[in-house]
């Protein structure tokens, strides 16, 4: 008889926390708010700076929530394509890593 492993019954929030994602971003309130923001601001702000009209994929917090940015303040939001959002997140993570290593030495 073949061995069939038992399925783990992870709740979505547990899975998200495991990968470091805040469950806030999966809340109904945020998804509705982000969708409305993208409807009003459909193009990536970084692409627009160079004259490219590329549809936004992400409603991004300019100042991250973890750094004290307001969750539902329109002045703290911007529309970004995946490329620019990933670039921004990479810079934020590098900055945090750099500041963390400086304080440890």
Descriptive overview:
By secondary structure, this protein is mostly helical. Helix content is 46%, strand content 8%. It contains four helices and two strands. The protein has a two-stranded antiparallel sheet. The longest helix is centred in the last third of the chain and has 23 residues. It is extended and about 45 Å long.
As residue ranges, the low-confidence spans are none
> Roughly what percent helix?
40-55%
**Total DSSP helices:** 4
Terminal-residue CA separation: 57 Å
Largest sheet: 2 strands, antiparallel
List keywords for this structure.
single chain, 105 residues, mainly alpha, 4 helices, 8% strand
List the topology elements.
Elements: H1 12-18, H2 28-40, H3 45-49, E1 58-61, E2 77-80, H4 82-104
Antiparallel strand pairs: 1-2
Give the structure's gist in a few sentences:
The chain is mostly helical and 105 residues long. The chain is 46% helix and 8% strand.
